[in-house]
Amino acid sequence: MSGRLRWTDVTDIAIALEDAHPDVDIINLRFTDLHRWVRELEEFGDDPQRSNEKILEAIQMAWIKERE
User: Fold this and answer.
1) 7: helix, coil or strand?
2) Looking at the domain assignment, is residue 3 inside a domain?
3) Residue 5 lies in a domain
4) Helices marked H in the chain — which ranges?
């Protein structure tokens, strides 16, 4: 894990998630899955406990925008 991405890097996380999970229904995504997938990203290196619903929602919105 290189630790480059942090929870606040919502756009970069969204891009990485789109690469890792291109067929996921991101509209009906459970935040528990989203949280796990972010933590599983090779580039992710932030404290898993620093996440909250607002951050996960921002990542989801950025992912939707990225897919458009």
Assistant:
1) coil
2) no
3) no
4) 10-20, 31-40, 53-67
In-domain check, residue 54: yes
Domain at 29, CATH number: 1.10.10.600
Q: Which residue has the tokens 């925008």?
A: 65
* Residue-number span of the structural domain to which 46 is assigned: 10-67
Residue 3 has pLDDT above 80, yes or no: no
Tokens of 1: 């894990």
Report pLDDT for 13: 98
Q: How confident is the model at residue 1 (pLDDT cuts 50, 70, 90)?
A: very low
The answer as to whether 2 is a domain residue is no
Tokens at 21, concatenated: 């999970």
Instruction: Pull the structure tokens for residue 28.
Output: 């009906």
Helix (H, G, I), strand (E, B) or coil at 23: coil
The CA distance from 55 to 13, in Å, is 11
